[in-house]
Amino acid sequence: ELKVEQNPLFLSMQEGKNYTIYCNYSTTSDRLYWYRQDPGKSLESLFVLLSNGAVKQEGRLMASLDTKARLSTLHITAAVHDLSATYFCAVLGGGSQGNLIFGKGTKLSVKP
Amino acid sequence: ETGVTQTPRHLVMGMTNKKSLKCEQHLGHNAMYWYKQSAKKPLELMFVYNFKEQTENNSVPSRFSPECPNSSHLFLHLHTLQPEDSALYLCASSRTGTGTSSTDTQYFGPGTRLTVL
């Protein structure tokens, strides 16, 4: 059974600091997704990572994938308050189509 | 706005009621999904429809009954629910089912916050 673990689950950081969220998964998968969810709102797609060594960047967020280690990271550079949200990673599971397995999410709070 | 709409946004129902959740996508996608998001639990996939055909039923109790009349609309019919079914129910769509070789991302609706009394 594919399991996805994120850590930390809660992260409080100051503006201007850097930090990394980690996403480990238990079995081989073809692709990995990162999503953002603001309170009371829907999930917004951030990145899709398809291959070993893939790196994608958007603004202050950078995601990478190491399929051999079954690890993805979401790095936050010089955090700002607007980045406060819950971040989820999801891995494509085996079997039927659309079977995304999500981590529990990392709730990020960026304080002035 | 994501192009995926859900109604109602909030629903309170008793255990003997019957209600339905509606999802509509305006993105021209062919695959639609129902997810359950509970406090302290990961997001759980419930059902997948690809080209109107159900391709996944993740061991969901029969008190949840999905319906997909066309590629743009998805319903979740609810009856005799339990208090533990209270959660945020999210609908999503993608161009095709993401189990294919495509890179399709799932786009989520805003969710229906369901409370079962």
Can you give a write-up of this model?
The complex is a heterodimer of chains A (112) and B (117). Chain A is mainly β. In chain A, 0% of the residues lie in helices and 55% in strands. Chain A has no helices and 11 strands. Chain A starts with a strand and ends with a strand. With 117 residues, chain B is an all-beta fold. In chain B, 0% of the residues lie in helices and 55% in strands. Chain B has strands at 4-7, 10-13, 18-25, 31-37, 44-50, 53-57, 64-70, 73-79, 87-94, 107-108, 112-116. In chain B, strands 2, 4, 5, 6, 9, 10 and 11 form a 7-stranded mixed β-sheet that branches. Chain B is globular, with a radius of gyration of 13 Å. The model of chain B has no long low-confidence stretch (mean pLDDT 88). Chain A binds chain B through residues 4, 31, 33, 35, 41-45, 48, 50, 88, 90, 92, 95-105, and chain B through 2, 4, 31, 33, 40-45, 48, 50, 55-56, 58, 90, 92, 94, 96-100, 103, 105-111.
Name the largest protein-protein interface in this structure. A-B, 25 and 31 residues
According to DSSP, the number of beta strands of chain A is 11
User: How many beta-strand elements of chain B?
Assistant: 11
Biggest sheet layout of chain A: 6 strands, mixed
Find the structural class of chain B using helix and strand composition.
Answer: mainly beta
In percent terms, what proportion of residues of chain A is strand?
Answer: over 45%
**What's the helical proportion of residues of chain A?**
under 10%
Number of helices of chain B: 0
- Nearest-integer average pLDDT of chain A: 91
Sequence stretches where pLDDT stays below 50 over 5 or more residues of chain B = none
What is the helix content of chain B?
under 10%
Task: State which percent range the strand residues of chain B make up.
Answer: over 45%
Low-confidence stretches of chain A: none
Termini separation of chain A: 41 Å
Based on secondary structure, the structural category of chain A is mainly beta
Order of helices and strands of chain A: EEEEEEEEEEE
